[in-house]
Amino acid sequence: MKRQYTHKQLATLDHQVLWHPFTQMKEWVEEDPIIIERGKGSYLIDTQGRRYMDGTSSIWVNIHGHQHPKIDKAIRRQLKHVAHTTMLGLSNPPAIQLAKKLIDLSPPGLSRVFYSDDGSTAVEVALKMAIQYWAQVKPAQPQKRTFIHLSQAYHGDTVGGMSLSGVELFHKPFYAVLFQAHEVPSPHCYRCPLELTYPSCQIDCLSPLEDLLRRNHEEIAGIIIEPMVQAVAGIIPSPSGYLKRIRGLCTKFNVLLIADEVATGFGRTGRMFACEHEDVTPDLMAISKGLTGGYMPLAATLTNEKIYQAFLGDYHEWKTFFHGHSYTGNPLGCAAALANLEIFEEEHVLGKLKKKIKLLSALLKDMKKEALIGDIRQCGFMVGIELVKDTKTKNPFPLTERMGYRVAKECQKRGLLIRPIGNVLVLLPPFSVTTKELKEMVKILQRSIREIH
Question: Which residue in 145, 176, 209, 315 has a CA-CA distance of 20 to 30 Å to 24?
Protein backbone atom coordinates (compact mmCIF):
# COMPACT_ATOMS: atom_id res chain seq x y z
CA MET A 1 0.00 0.00 0.00
CA LYS A 2 1.43 3.34 -1.06
CA ARG A 3 2.02 5.78 1.77
CA GLN A 4 0.09 9.04 1.50
CA TYR A 5 2.65 11.18 3.31
CA THR A 6 6.45 11.29 3.48
CA HIS A 7 8.22 10.93 6.83
CA LYS A 8 8.89 14.66 6.96
CA GLN A 9 5.22 15.49 6.28
CA LEU A 10 4.08 13.03 8.96
CA ALA A 11 6.54 14.48 11.48
CA THR A 12 5.29 18.00 10.77
CA LEU A 13 1.67 16.93 11.14
CA ASP A 14 2.46 15.05 14.36
CA HIS A 15 3.97 18.19 15.85
CA GLN A 16 0.93 20.19 14.77
CA VAL A 17 -1.96 17.99 15.90
CA LEU A 18 -0.92 15.26 18.38
CA TRP A 19 -0.50 15.25 22.17
CA HIS A 20 1.49 12.19 23.29
CA PRO A 21 1.03 10.42 26.66
CA PHE A 22 3.70 10.74 29.36
CA THR A 23 5.67 12.99 26.99
CA GLN A 24 6.98 16.53 27.49
CA MET A 25 5.67 18.03 24.27
CA LYS A 26 8.02 21.05 24.37
CA GLU A 27 10.90 18.61 23.86
CA TRP A 28 8.99 16.37 21.47
CA VAL A 29 8.42 19.08 18.86
CA GLU A 30 12.17 19.77 18.79
CA GLU A 31 12.96 16.17 17.78
CA ASP A 32 12.71 14.21 14.57
CA PRO A 33 10.23 11.58 15.82
CA ILE A 34 10.39 7.85 15.28
CA ILE A 35 7.16 7.04 13.44
CA ILE A 36 6.46 3.31 13.43
CA GLU A 37 4.89 2.09 10.20
CA ARG A 38 5.21 -1.70 10.37
CA GLY A 39 6.05 -4.56 12.71
CA LYS A 40 7.22 -8.10 12.19
CA GLY A 41 8.16 -10.59 14.89
CA SER A 42 10.39 -8.86 17.46
CA TYR A 43 10.99 -5.85 15.20
CA LEU A 44 9.36 -2.50 14.53
CA ILE A 45 10.11 -0.59 11.30
CA ASP A 46 9.76 3.17 11.02
CA THR A 47 8.78 5.39 8.10
CA GLN A 48 12.44 5.77 7.12
CA GLY A 49 12.96 2.01 6.90
CA ARG A 50 14.97 1.71 10.12
CA ARG A 51 14.48 -1.51 12.13
CA TYR A 52 14.33 -1.63 15.92
CA MET A 53 14.02 -4.56 18.31
CA ASP A 54 10.89 -4.08 20.44
CA GLY A 55 12.49 -4.29 23.89
CA THR A 56 9.33 -3.42 25.81
CA SER A 57 6.78 -5.34 23.73
CA SER A 58 5.19 -2.01 22.78
CA ILE A 59 4.71 -1.11 26.45
CA TRP A 60 4.18 -4.64 27.73
CA VAL A 61 1.26 -5.66 25.50
CA ASN A 62 2.74 -7.60 22.58
CA ILE A 63 3.12 -11.26 23.51
CA HIS A 64 3.82 -13.39 20.45
CA GLY A 65 5.53 -10.81 18.25
CA HIS A 66 4.03 -8.52 15.64
CA GLN A 67 1.93 -9.89 12.78
CA HIS A 68 1.33 -13.32 14.24
CA PRO A 69 -0.65 -15.09 11.48
CA LYS A 70 -3.12 -16.74 13.88
CA ILE A 71 -4.26 -13.47 15.46
CA ASP A 72 -4.28 -11.70 12.08
CA LYS A 73 -6.52 -14.46 10.71
CA ALA A 74 -8.85 -14.40 13.75
CA ILE A 75 -9.52 -10.69 13.35
CA ARG A 76 -10.12 -10.99 9.60
CA ARG A 77 -12.49 -13.91 10.21
CA GLN A 78 -14.47 -11.97 12.81
CA LEU A 79 -14.76 -8.99 10.44
CA LYS A 80 -16.83 -11.18 8.12
CA HIS A 81 -19.46 -11.37 10.89
CA VAL A 82 -19.57 -8.15 12.91
CA ALA A 83 -16.98 -5.66 14.20
CA HIS A 84 -18.88 -4.45 17.24
CA THR A 85 -22.16 -4.87 19.07
CA THR A 86 -23.09 -3.71 22.55
CA MET A 87 -23.22 -6.06 25.53
CA LEU A 88 -25.88 -3.96 27.26
CA GLY A 89 -28.72 -6.45 26.99
CA LEU A 90 -27.01 -8.44 24.24
CA SER A 91 -24.12 -10.89 23.95
CA ASN A 92 -21.79 -12.24 21.26
CA PRO A 93 -20.03 -15.59 20.67
CA PRO A 94 -16.39 -14.45 21.04
CA ALA A 95 -17.12 -12.71 24.36
CA ILE A 96 -18.83 -15.82 25.76
CA GLN A 97 -16.11 -18.21 24.57
CA LEU A 98 -13.32 -15.96 25.86
CA ALA A 99 -14.96 -15.65 29.29
CA LYS A 100 -15.09 -19.44 29.58
CA LYS A 101 -11.46 -19.72 28.51
CA LEU A 102 -10.32 -17.08 31.03
CA ILE A 103 -12.13 -18.83 33.88
CA ASP A 104 -10.52 -22.14 32.91
CA LEU A 105 -7.04 -20.56 32.95
CA SER A 106 -7.44 -18.36 36.04
CA PRO A 107 -6.80 -19.25 39.70
CA PRO A 108 -9.53 -21.63 40.96
CA GLY A 109 -12.62 -19.96 42.38
CA LEU A 110 -12.83 -17.08 39.92
CA SER A 111 -16.04 -17.69 37.99
CA ARG A 112 -17.35 -14.45 36.48
CA VAL A 113 -15.89 -12.11 33.83
CA PHE A 114 -16.77 -8.42 33.40
CA TYR A 115 -15.25 -6.81 30.30
CA SER A 116 -13.92 -3.27 29.96
CA ASP A 117 -11.42 -1.40 27.79
CA ASP A 118 -7.99 -1.16 29.42
CA GLY A 119 -6.05 -1.85 32.62
CA SER A 120 -7.12 1.33 34.39
CA THR A 121 -10.80 0.63 33.79
CA ALA A 122 -10.40 -3.01 34.86
CA VAL A 123 -9.06 -1.75 38.19
CA GLU A 124 -11.82 0.86 38.45
CA VAL A 125 -14.40 -1.89 37.92
CA ALA A 126 -12.85 -3.96 40.72
CA LEU A 127 -12.97 -1.02 43.16
CA LYS A 128 -16.60 -0.25 42.39
CA MET A 129 -17.56 -3.91 42.64
CA ALA A 130 -15.89 -4.14 46.04
CA ILE A 131 -17.70 -1.11 47.47
CA GLN A 132 -21.10 -2.16 46.12
CA TYR A 133 -20.54 -5.75 47.27
CA TRP A 134 -20.07 -4.74 50.91
CA ALA A 135 -23.19 -2.53 50.71
CA GLN A 136 -25.33 -5.39 49.36
CA VAL A 137 -23.94 -8.57 50.93
CA LYS A 138 -25.90 -10.08 53.81
CA PRO A 139 -25.34 -8.85 56.43
CA ALA A 140 -24.55 -5.55 54.74
CA GLN A 141 -21.40 -3.70 55.80
CA PRO A 142 -21.65 -0.35 53.96
CA GLN A 143 -18.96 1.17 56.20
CA LYS A 144 -16.36 -0.97 54.38
CA ARG A 145 -15.45 1.50 51.63
CA THR A 146 -11.76 2.34 51.98
CA PHE A 147 -8.78 0.58 50.43
CA ILE A 148 -5.15 -0.25 51.18
CA HIS A 149 -2.37 0.02 48.61
CA LEU A 150 1.42 -0.31 48.61
CA SER A 151 3.61 2.77 48.77
CA GLN A 152 5.11 2.39 45.29
CA ALA A 153 1.99 1.03 43.63
CA TYR A 154 0.68 1.99 40.22
CA HIS A 155 -2.86 1.01 39.27
CA GLY A 156 -3.66 3.22 36.31
CA ASP A 157 -4.59 6.79 35.45
CA THR A 158 -8.30 6.92 36.24
CA VAL A 159 -9.33 8.67 39.46
CA GLY A 160 -9.72 5.38 41.34
CA GLY A 161 -6.45 4.00 40.01
CA MET A 162 -4.55 7.16 40.92
CA SER A 163 -6.09 7.23 44.40
CA LEU A 164 -4.51 3.84 45.06
CA SER A 165 -1.15 4.58 43.50
CA GLY A 166 2.06 5.64 45.19
CA VAL A 167 3.90 7.26 42.26
CA GLU A 168 3.56 10.84 43.44
CA LEU A 169 4.94 12.38 40.25
CA PHE A 170 2.02 10.97 38.27
CA HIS A 171 -0.87 11.94 40.54
CA LYS A 172 0.29 15.04 42.45
CA PRO A 173 -1.51 17.49 40.09
CA PHE A 174 -4.80 15.69 40.75
CA TYR A 175 -4.84 15.51 44.56
CA ALA A 176 -8.04 17.58 44.67
CA VAL A 177 -10.12 14.84 43.04
CA LEU A 178 -8.54 11.74 44.62
CA PHE A 179 -10.16 9.81 47.47
CA GLN A 180 -8.43 8.90 50.73
CA ALA A 181 -6.77 5.49 51.04
CA HIS A 182 -4.39 3.70 53.40
CA GLU A 183 -0.78 3.20 52.33
CA VAL A 184 1.67 0.55 53.58
CA PRO A 185 5.35 0.02 52.66
CA SER A 186 6.27 -1.80 49.46
CA PRO A 187 8.46 -4.91 49.79
CA HIS A 188 11.52 -3.34 48.13
CA CYS A 189 14.44 -5.59 49.13
CA TYR A 190 17.10 -3.47 47.37
CA ARG A 191 15.92 -0.34 49.17
CA CYS A 192 14.22 -1.85 52.20
CA PRO A 193 12.08 0.79 53.98
CA LEU A 194 12.88 -0.95 57.30
CA GLU A 195 16.62 -1.27 56.51
CA LEU A 196 16.45 -5.05 56.96
CA THR A 197 17.79 -7.92 54.84
CA TYR A 198 15.83 -10.77 53.30
CA PRO A 199 15.32 -13.57 54.34
CA SER A 200 16.41 -12.86 57.92
CA CYS A 201 13.84 -10.01 57.98
CA GLN A 202 11.06 -12.64 57.89
CA ILE A 203 9.17 -10.23 55.60
CA ASP A 204 8.68 -7.76 58.44
CA CYS A 205 7.45 -5.15 55.94
CA LEU A 206 4.09 -6.92 56.32
CA SER A 207 3.83 -5.84 59.98
CA PRO A 208 2.43 -2.35 59.19
CA LEU A 209 -0.23 -3.97 57.01
CA GLU A 210 -1.22 -6.43 59.72
CA ASP A 211 -1.37 -3.64 62.32
CA LEU A 212 -3.52 -1.51 60.01
CA LEU A 213 -5.92 -4.37 59.34
CA ARG A 214 -6.18 -5.20 63.03
CA ARG A 215 -7.18 -1.61 63.84
CA ASN A 216 -9.31 -0.71 60.82
CA HIS A 217 -10.54 -3.88 59.10
CA GLU A 218 -14.19 -2.99 59.78
CA GLU A 219 -13.93 0.00 57.42
CA ILE A 220 -11.63 -1.54 54.77
CA ALA A 221 -13.21 -2.92 51.61
CA GLY A 222 -10.03 -4.39 50.15
CA ILE A 223 -6.32 -4.31 49.53
CA ILE A 224 -5.01 -3.98 46.00
CA ILE A 225 -1.62 -5.35 44.94
CA GLU A 226 0.39 -6.16 41.84
CA PRO A 227 1.16 -9.82 42.61
CA MET A 228 4.82 -10.92 42.59
CA VAL A 229 6.22 -7.74 41.00
CA GLN A 230 5.46 -4.02 41.11
CA ALA A 231 5.93 -3.04 37.50
CA VAL A 232 5.84 0.75 37.13
CA ALA A 233 7.64 1.11 40.47
CA GLY A 234 10.72 -0.20 38.64
CA ILE A 235 10.16 -3.97 38.31
CA ILE A 236 10.31 -4.66 42.05
CA PRO A 237 9.77 -8.37 42.84
CA SER A 238 8.18 -9.28 46.16
CA PRO A 239 10.01 -11.79 48.38
CA SER A 240 8.92 -15.42 48.36
CA GLY A 241 5.85 -15.95 50.56
CA TYR A 242 4.78 -12.28 50.56
CA LEU A 243 1.73 -12.77 48.33
CA LYS A 244 0.59 -15.87 50.23
CA ARG A 245 0.74 -14.03 53.54
CA ILE A 246 -1.28 -11.12 52.19
CA ARG A 247 -3.96 -13.59 51.10
CA GLY A 248 -3.98 -14.99 54.62
CA LEU A 249 -4.35 -11.54 56.19
CA CYS A 250 -7.24 -10.65 53.87
CA THR A 251 -9.04 -13.86 54.83
CA LYS A 252 -8.34 -13.38 58.54
CA PHE A 253 -9.61 -9.79 58.65
CA ASN A 254 -12.43 -10.20 56.10
CA VAL A 255 -11.24 -7.79 53.42
CA LEU A 256 -11.18 -8.43 49.68
CA LEU A 257 -7.92 -9.13 47.87
CA ILE A 258 -7.75 -7.33 44.53
CA ALA A 259 -4.97 -8.57 42.25
CA ASP A 260 -3.90 -6.12 39.58
CA GLU A 261 -2.53 -8.55 36.98
CA VAL A 262 -2.61 -5.99 34.18
CA ALA A 263 1.19 -6.04 33.78
CA THR A 264 1.96 -9.45 35.31
CA GLY A 265 -0.68 -11.54 33.58
CA PHE A 266 -0.37 -13.72 30.48
CA GLY A 267 2.99 -15.30 31.13
CA ARG A 268 5.10 -12.26 32.01
CA THR A 269 6.30 -13.82 35.28
CA GLY A 270 6.67 -17.31 33.81
CA ARG A 271 3.18 -18.49 34.80
CA MET A 272 -0.06 -17.56 33.09
CA PHE A 273 -0.96 -15.38 36.08
CA ALA A 274 1.43 -14.21 38.80
CA CYS A 275 -0.94 -15.35 41.56
CA GLU A 276 -0.22 -18.95 40.54
CA HIS A 277 3.36 -18.74 41.88
CA GLU A 278 2.03 -18.95 45.44
CA ASP A 279 -1.29 -20.74 44.76
CA VAL A 280 -3.29 -17.63 45.61
CA THR A 281 -6.82 -16.91 44.42
CA PRO A 282 -7.79 -13.24 44.74
CA ASP A 283 -11.36 -12.10 45.22
CA LEU A 284 -11.10 -9.79 42.22
CA MET A 285 -8.51 -9.85 39.43
CA ALA A 286 -7.91 -7.12 36.83
CA ILE A 287 -6.34 -8.12 33.51
CA SER A 288 -5.52 -6.33 30.25
CA LYS A 289 -2.25 -5.55 28.36
CA GLY A 290 -1.33 -9.04 27.02
CA LEU A 291 -4.96 -10.20 26.84
CA THR A 292 -5.23 -9.75 23.06
CA GLY A 293 -1.54 -10.35 22.36
CA GLY A 294 -1.01 -6.63 21.81
CA TYR A 295 -3.58 -6.28 19.04
CA MET A 296 -6.75 -4.69 20.42
CA PRO A 297 -7.77 -2.70 23.52
CA LEU A 298 -9.55 -5.10 25.86
CA ALA A 299 -9.65 -5.69 29.61
CA ALA A 300 -11.56 -7.81 32.09
CA THR A 301 -12.24 -8.00 35.81
CA LEU A 302 -12.72 -11.51 37.16
CA THR A 303 -14.44 -12.30 40.44
CA ASN A 304 -15.95 -15.17 42.40
CA GLU A 305 -19.51 -16.41 42.76
CA LYS A 306 -19.95 -14.97 46.27
CA ILE A 307 -19.37 -11.43 45.05
CA TYR A 308 -21.47 -11.99 41.94
CA GLN A 309 -24.43 -13.31 43.97
CA ALA A 310 -24.56 -10.09 46.03
CA PHE A 311 -25.58 -8.22 42.87
CA LEU A 312 -28.60 -10.41 42.13
CA GLY A 313 -32.10 -9.25 43.03
CA ASP A 314 -35.44 -8.11 41.73
CA TYR A 315 -35.47 -5.11 39.38
CA HIS A 316 -36.83 -2.70 41.99
CA GLU A 317 -34.01 -3.53 44.45
CA TRP A 318 -31.46 -1.73 42.22
CA LYS A 319 -28.70 -4.22 42.97
CA THR A 320 -27.49 -4.08 39.36
CA PHE A 321 -23.82 -3.18 38.82
CA PHE A 322 -24.38 0.16 37.09
CA HIS A 323 -21.14 0.30 35.17
CA GLY A 324 -20.30 -0.29 31.53
CA HIS A 325 -18.33 0.75 28.46
CA SER A 326 -19.40 1.31 24.88
CA TYR A 327 -16.86 -1.24 23.65
CA THR A 328 -17.40 -3.80 26.43
CA GLY A 329 -16.81 -7.31 25.09
CA ASN A 330 -15.94 -6.02 21.61
CA PRO A 331 -16.10 -9.06 19.26
CA LEU A 332 -12.89 -8.15 17.41
CA GLY A 333 -10.96 -7.81 20.66
CA CYS A 334 -12.40 -11.04 22.04
CA ALA A 335 -11.59 -12.88 18.81
CA ALA A 336 -7.99 -11.65 19.02
CA ALA A 337 -7.79 -12.69 22.68
CA LEU A 338 -9.08 -16.19 21.92
CA ALA A 339 -6.43 -16.60 19.22
CA ASN A 340 -3.80 -15.27 21.64
CA LEU A 341 -4.72 -17.93 24.22
CA GLU A 342 -4.79 -20.66 21.56
CA ILE A 343 -1.20 -19.75 20.63
CA PHE A 344 -0.17 -20.28 24.26
CA GLU A 345 -1.52 -23.83 24.04
CA GLU A 346 -0.59 -24.82 20.49
CA GLU A 347 2.95 -23.41 20.58
CA HIS A 348 3.64 -24.45 24.21
CA VAL A 349 4.66 -20.87 24.94
CA LEU A 350 5.10 -21.11 28.71
CA GLY A 351 7.18 -24.29 28.43
CA LYS A 352 9.52 -22.72 25.87
CA LEU A 353 9.67 -19.53 27.89
CA LYS A 354 11.40 -21.31 30.79
CA LYS A 355 14.58 -21.75 28.74
CA LYS A 356 14.52 -18.11 27.64
CA ILE A 357 14.06 -16.95 31.23
CA LYS A 358 17.13 -18.96 32.25
CA LEU A 359 19.13 -17.57 29.33
CA LEU A 360 18.08 -14.03 30.22
CA SER A 361 19.17 -14.59 33.84
CA ALA A 362 22.59 -15.79 32.65
CA LEU A 363 23.01 -12.82 30.30
CA LEU A 364 22.08 -10.35 33.03
CA LYS A 365 24.49 -11.96 35.49
CA ASP A 366 27.39 -10.77 33.36
CA MET A 367 26.05 -7.20 33.42
CA LYS A 368 26.10 -6.83 37.20
CA LYS A 369 29.77 -5.87 37.11
CA GLU A 370 29.06 -2.78 35.01
CA ALA A 371 29.58 0.65 36.55
CA LEU A 372 26.31 2.53 37.21
CA ILE A 373 24.29 -0.67 37.77
CA GLY A 374 23.09 -0.86 41.37
CA ASP A 375 20.54 -3.64 41.04
CA ILE A 376 19.22 -6.01 38.39
CA ARG A 377 15.74 -7.31 39.18
CA GLN A 378 14.10 -10.10 37.24
CA CYS A 379 10.77 -11.84 37.59
CA GLY A 380 10.24 -14.20 34.68
CA PHE A 381 10.51 -12.16 31.48
CA MET A 382 10.28 -8.83 33.33
CA VAL A 383 13.58 -7.06 33.99
CA GLY A 384 14.46 -3.81 35.75
CA ILE A 385 18.05 -2.50 35.77
CA GLU A 386 18.52 0.29 38.30
CA LEU A 387 21.24 2.83 37.56
CA VAL A 388 22.85 4.47 40.60
CA LYS A 389 25.47 7.14 41.19
CA ASP A 390 27.30 5.01 43.76
CA THR A 391 26.88 1.23 43.83
CA LYS A 392 28.16 0.94 47.41
CA THR A 393 25.87 3.53 48.98
CA LYS A 394 23.04 2.96 46.44
CA ASN A 395 22.94 6.73 46.06
CA PRO A 396 20.58 7.39 43.12
CA PHE A 397 21.08 9.79 40.25
CA PRO A 398 18.87 12.88 40.51
CA LEU A 399 15.99 12.41 38.07
CA THR A 400 17.03 15.70 36.44
CA GLU A 401 20.17 13.93 35.14
CA ARG A 402 17.89 11.62 33.12
CA MET A 403 20.27 8.67 33.17
CA GLY A 404 17.62 6.16 32.13
CA TYR A 405 16.52 8.40 29.26
CA ARG A 406 20.09 8.89 28.07
CA VAL A 407 20.79 5.16 28.02
CA ALA A 408 17.49 4.55 26.20
CA LYS A 409 18.45 7.10 23.53
CA GLU A 410 21.78 5.33 23.10
CA CYS A 411 19.97 1.98 22.75
CA GLN A 412 17.73 3.56 20.14
CA LYS A 413 20.78 4.51 18.04
CA ARG A 414 21.88 0.87 18.18
CA GLY A 415 18.50 -0.51 17.13
CA LEU A 416 16.74 -1.30 20.44
CA LEU A 417 13.61 0.46 21.72
CA ILE A 418 13.15 0.56 25.50
CA ARG A 419 11.18 2.86 27.78
CA PRO A 420 12.92 3.59 31.12
CA ILE A 421 11.15 4.43 34.37
CA GLY A 422 13.31 7.16 35.86
CA ASN A 423 16.69 5.56 36.60
CA VAL A 424 15.40 2.04 35.91
CA LEU A 425 15.90 0.48 32.48
CA VAL A 426 13.01 -1.86 31.70
CA LEU A 427 13.37 -4.86 29.41
CA LEU A 428 10.25 -6.91 28.55
CA PRO A 429 10.75 -8.64 25.21
CA PRO A 430 7.96 -10.46 23.37
CA PHE A 431 7.93 -14.20 24.08
CA SER A 432 8.61 -14.90 20.41
CA VAL A 433 12.10 -13.36 20.69
CA THR A 434 14.83 -15.73 19.48
CA THR A 435 17.87 -16.53 21.62
CA LYS A 436 19.98 -14.57 19.12
CA GLU A 437 17.72 -11.52 19.42
CA LEU A 438 17.66 -11.79 23.21
CA LYS A 439 21.45 -11.85 23.35
CA GLU A 440 21.57 -8.84 21.04
CA MET A 441 19.13 -6.89 23.21
CA VAL A 442 21.22 -7.43 26.34
CA LYS A 443 24.42 -6.64 24.43
CA ILE A 444 23.00 -3.33 23.23
CA LEU A 445 21.90 -2.46 26.76
CA GLN A 446 25.35 -3.24 28.13
CA ARG A 447 27.17 -1.24 25.46
CA SER A 448 24.80 1.70 25.84
CA ILE A 449 25.37 1.84 29.60
CA ARG A 450 29.14 1.80 29.01
CA GLU A 451 28.83 4.56 26.44
CA ILE A 452 26.90 6.83 28.80
CA HIS A 453 29.32 6.06 31.66
Answer: 176
